[in-house]
Each structure stands twice: as C-alpha cells, then as structure tokens.
Design a protein that fits this description.
The complex is a heterodimer of chains A (125) and B (78).
Chain A (H helix, E strand, L loop, with lengths): L12 E5 L5 H15 L4 E2 L2 H5 L3 H8 L3 E6 L5 H8 L6 E4 L15 H16 L1
Parallel strand pairs in A: 1-2, 1-3, 3-4
Chain B lengths: L1 E5 L4 H17 L4 E5 L2 H6 L7 E4 L2 E5 L5 H9 L2
Parallel strand pairs in B: 1-2
Antiparallel strand pairs in B: 1-3, 3-4
The chains are: A alpha/beta (125), B alpha+beta (78).
Chain lengths: 125, 78
C-alpha cells in the first residue's frame, strides 16, 4: 500500500462481479479485475454487500455509478445489490454474451474481453 | 460513545473532524473522538472513499464532508 495515497477523490464507478463457482462467475471476476486495471472503475466486494458490512454499504452509497457483472441468469450480483437497496446502472450477464456456463473453469482471454467490451459499451450509452 | 474519523490527513478529513467536534460540543454529549489516518486500517474496514465517520464501530458517513447538522442527526439517532 502506497503511503502517499489518498482516498478522498470520489470513486465514480464501482464494479461488482458475482465471482461465483463456475467458469462464468470467474470470467465475471476477471473482467472486474481487468476493468479496474484499465481505470474504468474500481472492483468492490459483493460479499460485503451481502453481509451488510457498514463500511462497504456506505462506500457504495457514495459511488456515482454501479456496475453489476453476473455470470449467469440467476443474477446473484444484481439481486444482492438490490437486497441492500442499490440499483445497478449497468448490468452485464456473461451467459448473455454467448458463453456457456460450466464447472470446469476453462476460460480464455477472449471471453474476458467480451465482457469488458460489453461493460464499456453499456457505460457509454 | 466512540466516534472515529477516517482519513489520511487532507483538508476534507480535517474539515470532517472540525464538524464532528462542533456537533459533539453543540449537543453537549460525551464522546471519544479518534482520528484514524493509517491507510491500511482504513482499507481494512472496507472504506473505499474518505473522509469517513464511524460511530461505535459502524460506518455512518463515507466519501463526503458531513455538516455539523448531519452529524448531530446521526448522534441523536443513537
């Protein structure tokens, strides 16, 4: 952790992936990591929202936009956010992009790029 | 009551501390006011943006300078 870093600049965009136990959950997770390293937004902790951890809830209230990346049509990310009172501004579902859900965790970089491209496209709209 | 002000020491954090002290004074309550400027500690609490104010261990304000009135309302709810 850099000592000279300040957290007082507003975080405009928070990214919540489902990070679930399947290939598409992990593609969502990798896409959120990629979008963070590309400075599109900042990946944040869906588990903290589900656990109603006050620091995470209040930080999410301060965000200008919320991105939810779900792996599959179960929509756990969107539902978890909604349960805590947040409505995602952008919602992307990995399986909607033609990627089939499986449990063998084989993924390739192109699949992650498909998701990051879709998030950026929806953000620009 | 314990009030913690989380921030790395920038003007926004200082303004938050000033407003917290003003709110506590105006309400005439007893409160322990603690400044937390260690970035690792701030991050460990799940705070993404500062300044932040925790009251008795719960985040109440994150990412903006609360006015004395906002802080008073939060303190009076307790």
């Amino acid at each position: 952790m850099k000592k000279d870093k300040c957290l007082c600049e507003p975080t405009e965009i928070l990214i919540f992936p489902c990070s679930g136990g399947s290939n598409v959950g992990q593609i969502a997770n990798d896409a959120a990591k990629k979008l963070t390293t590309q400075d599109v937004g900042k990946m944040y902790c869906l588990a903290g929202i589900g656990g109603h951890v006050s620091g995470l809830i209040e930080s999410t209230k301060a965000a200008k936009r919320i991105i939810a990346i779900d792996g599959c049509p179960v929509h756990c990310t969107k539902k978890t956010l909604e349960h805590a009172g947040f409505k995602p501004d952008v919602h992307v579902v990995v399986t909607d992009l033609g990627i089939q859900k499986n449990y063998d965790f084989t993924m390739d970089v192109d699949e992650i790029k498909k998701v990051t491209d879709k998030v950026v496209e929806k953000l620009r709209k | 009551m314990k009030i913690e002000i989380l921030g790395t020491g920038c003007p926004k954090c200082k303004a938050t501390e000033k407003n917290v002290r003003k709110a506590v004074d105006e309400l005439g309550i007893q409160a322990e006011i603690i400044k937390i400027d260690d970035l690792q500690e701030i991050v460990n609490r799940g705070v993404m943006m500062t300044p932040a104010v925790f009251i008795d261990g719960q985040a109440k304000v994150v990412g903006h300078i609360p006015s004395p009135n906002e802080i008073k309302k939060l303190l009076q709810k307790r």
